[in-house]
């Protein structure tokens, strides 16, 4: 039982910042430095563990053993059943000549592998994703500088039946922005201007190709914040964020992009410019068409500009970590945090004991709390008054400790400690790769049953004799962590080696399990090519039919980002 | 200049509750009692001023002089250019027989004026709106009790080309839920069950016919709140709220329904049940089709159930009212309130001096602040800790007074005073009708220019010689108030009598003015029949074409709520 004196010790004991790799980021802004799970360049980060090059995403099909000189498999090799759609024309030099008329001759506007003007290496950054999981075969990249150029490109492509893939920062996790065959890449990178900001209402208008971090830094100077935060913020484009309906850590506080995006300018496949770039919070003048483009992953058109409502930036940030003895108590803690921290709660993250044990073992660091706890929660508050926020947090922790909802807790005393505590949540992904690879599932499940997926999956692995501490067992552990505030679980299965038995035990088991609970097989990463074949686990045939009806309405020739999504 | 001592006096001086009519509501819950601008029954409220029966909505076309025994004009008389669409069948007794097969014989399920089973009076509540502005000619009302019944009704209507009007609580302001000719009314009133509530995540699933206040009262017992609040909450249905994309006072804090609605179950015109009733905050599995139904005003199908994310209820509520010397200062105060009150700010309302003068004159009450101010703002905070919130509010008021952003201010000390201060905002609508009628426009305008619409309209009335204090001038005043936090202005022109000159001076002037600023001619009330012909001022032809494309996709026979919306 946690005593009052024990609590106060825990509350006041500074956490010693033992995470050397994070302290290097100490001089950077808080929001930027503490969320870096995803490399900001297309190459994986180099780390002291071999895990860096073995990061895998939600779909398990591309899980391969690491090789010294790793070659990314073509997506068509990974998915041998995919056939190039014969409706689409093959890009010719005549086509390229027309694109040069539209865009000009500058190499900044066209990367031309069709006429042989560039070699394969110049096309690679557009053909491959940052995880080296997906690889396409485009021979042409177009980089329009204006909405009008996008419109003229698409109209011509539609007329000529040339398939295209819109591409932003190329930081996606499901292969959505990578061509499969020889689709033309339309990169939005040159469309990167901040168009307007109303510093009273918080309405921001930006080009789709703006980098999220650049926009957020611009807003920081005005005392505002972008209502979305991602590990990939240094590379991802805001247009891509909207096309993917990205979630991230701020969703608990600022809600989904369906609520915060005020307007969208998009170019439809036939070149039509849809000007729905409203900057107003209230506008009831007809169907809210822009919503279709939020999360459409470039299959209906190309988002070229967006307007978004930005909240004021909170000057005070607090972070606490606590240990709990059961998932039921974690739910109770979440409910109490919502009640008592209410308007200042900005993150509520769940990590199970196994995930924290692995981080501790792999990094060789002592955990911030004494002893082992079956569950840990990390909470962040963001508010306008540091004293008030700290008082609320302290009262909350005292209450939940006195009532034995939590077993122990610690509050960060400064920014270094904030980063250290976040490290126990953010370090998981990296550490899980320690043994060879990880099967990862990004799913939403109603909160009451969320963690049961981990328990049931673990039991299944044990029954199949796949889970154990010795080398003959492929599975190292079955664990879970994620955004508890959003019912968003990351089910992770670190393995010693690729093994078809593990995959067979996992799928369709996991998807069926989620289907039975009305969960979502894709919480925040989108469908892309990775989950195209699994949507039926979260949507019935009627919904799928209605979605395909929309696709056919906007893109009757199917040129927009083919082979993906639905 | 405001001195520090003056401020503290103002801050600490209790407001004497002089509003007798509001004190009657003292025993009711705060949220319920202080927002009652719209009567909760279909009949206008009886008040001591003649204004009660002279309340007019956004469109000026139906402004008529009050008569002792008032008869509501048929909508077809008001809009003589409207013609019944000859594609639609006329309801026969055979049709009614089929509907009886679906719904049973109970009078609670069918109000049958076709077979002569009921008289005109029984149909009137479904044919007329609560403002007595719109009047249809339906002879048949169907009240399904389940989604399946709605589906069977619509499939049959679609096959038979019978036009229908979905109807909720019938509290709309633009005639959207009232038939125009003989369309069949489908009332959702019997579908009124709360289906589920997850008291950890806050996900609520309810039938579309639930009354907003009933749902909110249910949530209050769980410590939660519905993320929408309206004057009509005692009558309106949540399905109607979503169909209208209602805004209200909580939008500043909880965002739009596009963000908070998690899922929708809707029946399409051909009877297809679209099950998009997700209860998860994150779900990236295809196009977000439910968004099309939010704000579609029943033109694409009938919403039968919805899932919505409900926030925790705030135990502490504070209200302050202050006077300002210019609109620029009101903007500055808004910016500072957002910054300093940040996460606890739940309302920021603007009222100009003229509106407050009229309330004072009509009600015969002294204003809560000494002297006259060109502008007044009412702010409300809602938080989890009353002491913290009051301290923030006090510090904010001290800061803005010291810097002369505001000229004077007062903070309510108890619930009675909270209601009294809100009365100065909410009493405007009623008091404006004192002289005969009011031209009302509910619009959104980028905040910097928002109030200029009032100034320019006033100048126009003065130039035309229409505005003055003597009886020969039709216009009493031109004034503005509204939800400053949402850039939502209510431009109001109280008049002594209906005068075509006033209307000619107002339209299309007001709409063109808004169009030039990329504003919205309909902020939160929808289009219905009132604004159908004016959408072009806020949407270009391309957008209108794309919207009509969606309408044709879902409702190729046009049976859903015809003659309205687009």
From TrEMBL, chains A, B:
A GO MF label: oxidoreductase activity
Principal EC category: oxidoreductase
Keywords: FAD, Flavoprotein, Oxidoreductase
EC number: 1.1.99.40
Gene3D superfamilies with a match to the protein in the record: 3.30.465.10, 3.30.70.2190, 3.30.70.2740, Uridine Diphospho-n-acetylenolpyruvylglucosamine Reductase, domain 2 (3.30.43.10), Vanillyl-alcohol Oxidase, Chain A, domain 4 (1.10.45.10)
Matching SUPFAM superfamilies: FAD-binding/transporter-associated domain-like, FAD-linked oxidases, C-terminal domain
Cofactor(s) needed for function: FAD
Family matches, as PROSITE patterns: FAD_PCMH (PS51387)
Region of interest called Disordered, as start-end residue ranges on this chain: 19-78
Biased composition (Low complexity): 19-62
Pfam families: FAD-oxidase_C, FAD_binding_4
Domain FAD-binding PCMH-type: residue ranges: 134-313
InterPro entries reported in the protein's UniProt record: FAD-bd_oxidored_4_C (IPR004113), FAD-bd_PCMH (IPR016166), FAD-bd_PCMH-like_sf (IPR036318), FAD-bd_PCMH_sub1 (IPR016167), FAD-bd_PCMH_sub2 (IPR016169), FAD-linked_Oxase-like_C (IPR016164), FAD-oxidored/transferase_4 (IPR051264), Oxid_FAD_bind_N (IPR006094)
Similarity comment: Belongs to the FAD-binding oxidoreductase/transferase type 4 family.
Protein name: D-lactate ferricytochrome c oxidoreductase
Biological classification of the source: Eukaryota, Fungi, Dikarya, Ascomycota, Pezizomycotina
